[in-house]
Amino acid sequence: MRARLALLVAAVSVLTLIAFLVPLALLVRTVAQDRATVRATADAQSLVPVVGTADAPTIRLTVEQLAAESGRQVSVFLPDGTVLGAQAPRTPAVALAVRGQSLTGESAAGREVVIAVQGRADGTGVIRIVVPRQELTAGVTRAWLVLALLGVVLVLIGLAVADRLARTLVRPIGDLSAVSHRLANAELDARVTPAGPAELREVAGALNHLAGRIQVLLAQEREQVADLSHRLRTPLTALRLEAESLRDPDDAARIAAAADGLERAVTGLIQQARWRRGPTPGTAASDAAAIVADRVAFWSVLAEDTGRAVHLDLAPGPISVGVPADDLAAAVDALLGNVFAHTPDGTPFTVRLARDDGEVLLTVADEGPGMPSGAVRRGASAAGSTGLGLDIARRAAQAGGGRLELRSGPEGGAQVLLRLGPPTSLREA
Fold first, then answer.
1. Are 167 and 87 in contact (CB under 8 A)?
2. Which of 29, 164, 315, 349 allows an S-S link to 366, with CB 3.0 to 4.6 Å?
């Protein structure tokens, strides 16, 4: 922006100076020519009394003396055809002067001043003085250089003033940009100091007000989520008591384990809602092999009840990924839950965990009807669910420096690929 403002001021300054300096330069040249012509005319007028009354030797002496003093070509044409002083041919201007007309004309040697002298007994004499072009332009070049230097100085002064003014605009805009980036990085306590013109101060105040409102709304949302999570503890306690009252020890242990897992998830939700800022993506680490094996074992009970064949292919662990254990477990649960929610009973599925070019690739594939396009959008679902499952997996992958990919299987069905990066410490190593 500073460069554009400087370019604009430079363009305006140059155009303004051209509009003034070009006519002024032409005027300087005209004045110099007129000044030289006036001096030559005055010298010629000084010869008029001598040419009109004196004899030829006196005229010759006076002409030679004037030519030596002025450095110009001085010629006197007498009526009898005699030329005194500088020998020169009779030019059309001299022919006109013989008829009694004094004038100034241009010639190849410069500007000639011709004066007719009447009153001689033998006729009309003519005085001719040639002003050389060097004299006509004397001082013009220096004056033009001074004007050009003055124009450059004025442009530089204009650029300096424009840069100073632009700085008063650019600096507040830069502060606004920096604070907006800090807000985008979840630094909600960032504020900008209003500065600059009134419009920028108004924008700064609006940005500060927006940041304050975001803080208030997020605090309210965290409190609401935390309150809702606390309310879930009561039915979880009741569910655990019901599990303890079951006669079958296996069923009681399975339901108690599910209740414990749900309670851990609720506890994590409360902690995340209470935290002002979450951990930096990629700094947490977990063993993907252990977590995937644990979650597949959990879902295998339901798979057995619904007649689904589970194919598990895990690379030997431990396999460290840059995703917290709770987030990775939630992502695996979301992917496996989608298989049970969107495929009919008896549909087999495969869970594969492997290393792939420095990444960890988790693949969940089924032989069901496939997945509609756009299913990864948050809140989008074609089966009446909340549509948050794939979004949970996507955010977990992004937190680990990876991504979520959806594909169709070679024989139909859906393939969900979760690419996870290593922890930050391993990346830097």
1. no
2. 349
Q: Are 301 and 329 in contact (CB under 8 A)?
A: no
| CB-count burial class (<10 Å; 0-12, 13-18, 19+) for 106 | exposed
Task: Quickly state the pLDDT bin for 380 (edges 50, 70, 90).
Answer: very low
Identify the residue whose tokens are 């937190």.
399
Q: How many residues does the chain have?
A: 429
Handedness of CA 248, 252, 258, 261 (dihedral sign): negative
| Whole-number Cα distances in Å, 153 to 17, 82, 156, 329 | 11, 57, 5, 71
- Give the three-state DSSP class for 410: strand
358 vs 117, residue with greater confidence:
117
pLDDT band at 23, cuts 50/70/90?
Answer: very high
Q: Which residues pair with 127 in a beta bridge?
A: 76, 115
The tokens describing 94, both together, are 């001299």
Average pLDDT over residues 353-361: 85
Please, where in the chain does CATH 3.30.450.20 lie?
A: 2-140
CA nearest to 404, candidates 423, 425, 424, 389: 389
d(CA 242, CA 236) in angstroms, rounded, equals: 10
pLDDT at residue 274, as a whole number:
54
Beta bridge partners of 73: 130
* Residue appearing with tokens 């502060």: 175
Let me know: does 386 contact 338? Beta carbons within 8 Å: no
Architecture field, domain 198-274:
Orthogonal Bundle (1.10)
User: Which amino acid does the sequence have at 423?
Assistant: P
Return the half-sphere exposure (C-beta side, CA atoms, 13 A cut-off) of residue 405: 11
How many other C-beta atoms lie within 10 A of the C-beta of residue 121?
5
Q: How far apart are the first and last CA of the chain?
A: 41
At residue 349, the 3 state secondary structure works out as strand
Q: Is 176 left (phi over 0), alpha (psi -120 to 50) or beta?
A: alpha
Tens of pLDDT, residues 257-292: 777 777 777 666 666 655 544 444 445 678 889 999
Q: Model confidence over 337-352: pLDDT tens digits? A: 888 888 888 889 999 9
286-428: CATH, from 3.90.1150.10, 3.30.70.270, 3.30.565.10, 3.10.450.50: 3.30.565.10
* Cα–Cα nearest to 90, from 125, 44, 59, 119: 125
What is the pLDDT at residue 279? Answer: 46
As assigned by CATH, the class of the 2-140 domain is alpha beta
